[in-house]
Fold this protein.
Amino acid sequence: MDTSDHHFQSDLAEIAAEKYKAGTLSRRGFLSAMGALGLVPLLGNRALAQASEVVVCNWGGQASDILRDLLGKAFEEETGIPVRVDGAGPSAGKVRAMVESGAVVWDVCDSGAGSAIVMNGAGVIQDIDYSIVDKSKVLEGTALPFAVGNYLFSYAMAYNPTMLPGGAPQSWADVWNVKDFPGMRTFRKSVRGQLEAAAQAMGIAKEDVYEFLDDDGIKAAIAKFRELRDNIIVWGSGSDSQNLFLQGEVAMGNIYSTRGFLLREQMEPGTFKMTYDGALLQPGMWVVPKNNPAGTETAMKFIATVQDPQLQAEWFVAIGNGPINPAAAALVPAELSEWNPNTPENVAKQVIYNDEWYGKNQVSAEELYIDALIG
Amino acid sequence: MPRMNEKLRYWMLVLPALAVMIFFYIWPVLNIWGISVTEPATGLGNYTKMFDSNAVRVSFMLTFRIAAITTVVCLLLGYILAYTISNFATKARPLMLGLVLLPFWVSVLIRSFAWIVLLGRSGLVNDALMDTGLIATPIRFMHNETGVLIAMVHVMLPFAVLPMLTNMRGIPGSYMKAARGLGASEWRAFRDVYFPQTLPGVFSGGLLVFVLSLGFYITPALLGGGRVMMISEYITYQIQEFLNWGLGAALSVALLVATAIILFVAGRFVNLRKTFLERN
């Protein structure tokens, strides 16, 4: 479920790849480390991903099952090529490790714009063939030369009305208003998707958020978290945030819309609400590693097949991934429409994720953010 | 046939374990120390950064504070328990000892999750207190320092009880009887005769608990609500989130040095050899 969660990128494989690059780990050491992590198929196992199947890698959990049963089945019906789903989490580091070691087993990977830029910089992913993949079937701005949008998710404001007798929070400013809206809040244990909320709580319009978040703006937004920190419980993984709401530990928070979509069904009626007002809309991205076993054309065909609006709508209903194809909005059942981050109304309410800002500021902001939360 | 040289035999016996330690522990640890002065640039940059960082200071203070409180509480509770087991329980002694050791059979992870079930806002403790009308709104037992302390005391208690128990069971009952026979009150006999003899056990237990607590990771991470970040979690965070091996390594060196200083200072009061090597 932690689709495109770049949290996972900083895993062992990535570190090993860093060391390899920096020359502190020999090629042999690197390959054996990858082997130990199960990333390089052992000798003789290279047939694992034959051209007769497509291996799609995502981040595991229920999302993997649905990817296999819904998108995988549709592709097999259309082309006769079976789809295998690997939930190992295709972080930039792992993809690079695979491509550089010459043992690629993934054909299509569920990544994010930020990681895709890193991977393209490292020269380990292929350009998207837009004669097969349809640019018009994705949200504007998500068709990059080397990656294409696969679904959307948001960091959205969610709350439990039964824990807020004083009324529901209407804006991020209300989330920061501890006096009128008492109770614990949850924010992510990473700066991703969080400073945008703090900036809006300071009265910055959603269009101006990234412009505001220069060095001084970042400091100001972080100071807002320092101010609120005694009322904050942080979530590490998406399931943490889900648990915090389920167990009534928090009254409100900033969580993945996909988790909110699940909580909608899991919580008692009337105890959970989520709004896209002031949320941060972020696309996930398909990327295709260089030298992928099934070949470029098959991989591109898979991406094109799952752009189908009907499939996209079913994918959303199954797990809450916002359809990347705007045409799918009309096919989503009416009662679920308000939960879809990619309807014209909901898109208009949200801040649109800015990769450039993250590329430039994330690391430094991240340290300041943790500093503010703990001391 | 001449007997094998004593010294050679000694080293032959030690060699396999020593080799394992050198290759799989000492060598990697030395490498980590190396990283702290070579990445991202050669020099002491990581250490200056560490001393300049407010978060590091906070995390270190928090770590030592939590370890100290855990130690004091464990010693208090553990002393009473050890005293009871060694002086009063006769038939029930095996059972009580078993209960002290039982938590070792369950992983720290499971025990920490169990505390989440108990201490949550809608957990068993809060539900019971609310149902009996003792409180109107749930008390925040976890996702703060309190929760971390409760769970850590639970995990650490056996480490305090066992050394004290061993020590107390080595004290013959005749001393107390003699003191009582000479007219001392029960309290006085305990204070002046029994208690001083248990101090080695108290120091051993305290030291064990304190040193182990300094490196705690899982329990604070699960029960601290992400904001009670002890130094080992901070190190993990630096390495995994920021790929900041240099600073992470420098922090682990600092933790090691701080622990070594404590052991050194403690060594002036406690017989360390007896604490860690010779359990009788």
User: Anything to note?
Assistant: Chain A is about 40% helix and 15% strand. Chain A has two domains: 6-152+282-351, 153-281+352-374. Residues 1-13, 40-50 of chain A have pLDDT under 50 and may be disordered.
